[in-house]
Amino acid sequence: MNRDVIISVSGLQFLENVSQDSIETVQQGEYFFRNGSHFLLYDEYLEGFSEPVKNTLRIRDREFLLTKRGLINVQMLFVEGRKNLAQYRTPYGTVMVGLDTGRMALESGEDKLRLEVDYTLEANYQYVADCQIRIEARQRQS
Question: What is the CATH number of the domain that holds 114?
Fold first, then answer.
């Protein structure tokens, strides 16, 4: 896969007694592979703010690290079969998030990369939802 990619990040939340809630963002970004890890980089713009949030995704076999810098600051580590905590800092305050990672599935090919992660989300030590995140990167067509 070349350096210029289109990155799609979609998330699903399965809430109790409520239908599923989903979000998706599609951005132009960069891809590279170094020291056994796939890296995806992209900027995300939040409504009402002009400063972008810089996103870095590092993906290995059974580990995924999402780092956000800017208006939102966090390092969220997903490791299959393990629970991790992270401080999610926003312009409105900080929330402690818990990420209890279940299944992770990674597919990588010559012109695309796809990752699926199932996890349970907690906020300030309280259960929020069962979630799934899907990340897909495809070569950008010239």
Answer: 2.40.128.20
